[in-house]
Amino acid sequence: MEKNYYEIDQNIYRRFDQKNDIFCRYLWDNSLKTYQNNFADDMLMNIKEDKEGYTHFDYAFSKASWTVYNRFPFAFSWEGDISFEEDWYGYKLREQKYQIKDLLEFTTKVKKVARFYGASLVGITKLDEKWIYQRAAKRSVQKFLGSYPIHFPENIDKVIVMAIEMDPQGLFTTPALPACAATGLGYSKMAFTISCLGEFIRNLGYQAIQCGNDTALSIPLAIDAGLGALGRNGLLITPEYGSGVRICKVFTDLPLVLDKPNFNFISKLSNFCKRCYQCAEVCETKAISFKPEPDFKGETISNNPGVKKYYINPEKCFEFWVENTSDCSKCITICPFSNTQDFILSNEFWNEK
Ligand code: SF4
Ligand code: SF4
After folding, report:
1. 232 lines ligand 2 (CB under 6 A)
2. How far away, in angstroms, is 271 Cα from ligand 2 center?
3. pTM for this entry
4. Are 208 and 252 within 8 A, CB to CB?
5. Are the C-beta atoms of residues 222 and 139 closer than 8 Å to each other?
6. What does the alpha-carbon distance between residue 102 and residue 104 come to, in Å, rounded to a whole number?
């Protein structure tokens, strides 16, 4: 198990082109049922009907939770914000490299810094090129703007991977809007955490590339960094929070001690998912595999075939999101490894003190 915690068919595997991510595809691929559907009209209809969990109040709450993620472009900067250099003391720090005396002690402190800024879990792994997108996509809210190859600066050789817990009580209301607020807040916390950690690393005189879902596949990097394992639901499952996390990462040339994958948990989950179909059963659009065994074949061009795993169908998943006028966390909440209880109605969420 230790040697082959994932199996790859080299004849099939290709680095992923982000253009095929469903969140880009729905903007350019007119073969999709969800082509250019941005939820807005159905949202207004729901508001008019004052449907529980989908009221004007709920949408206002949910949309606002994305504020830092959506409106703070610096979070995804590769270089830091140089416009501050002349009037901010930080740039002086960057003229010299911090001298590391004890690598293990230093790594422990860097992880503490990441947790201080907001990470719930932190792991470190080497940069594995196969998980880096072959091409990164550019998009605005309403348009796909093309894609470009990714070239990292020299010496960047590792990645600090962080998982951020989402609000479990909000998630219980899925697929209603308070659960979407838990997702949005998770993304905003990601943006906050990576931008602080990136600046910290630059202040030590090293390079940092701050990433959310962009630039590389977060789940295999998180598994390599020891944060958990891949579930039938197509998501990272951590021993601490199940799938109730968002993943972000900072690529760097900072000297750090690498973590190992959590082999025991990978093996435990692999056996568990073979017998447990709860996520597949709860999914409205049957987007999650019922296959008894994982395989190498993707379902759509939005998958990344060639890795032995259970493939979800992102087209079907996104169809439910569009119908729901927001995202969905049912396959997160139902998983026995997640820190969640029973689903609750949004009124119960609002009435909870
Ligand atoms: S997010 Fe919802 S629709 Fe998508 S796979 Fe999970 S349960 Fe299905
Ligand atoms: S719900 Fe069950 S099958 Fe699905 S990811 Fe969790 S443990 Fe695996």
Report:
1. yes
2. 10
3. 0.95
4. yes
5. no
6. 6
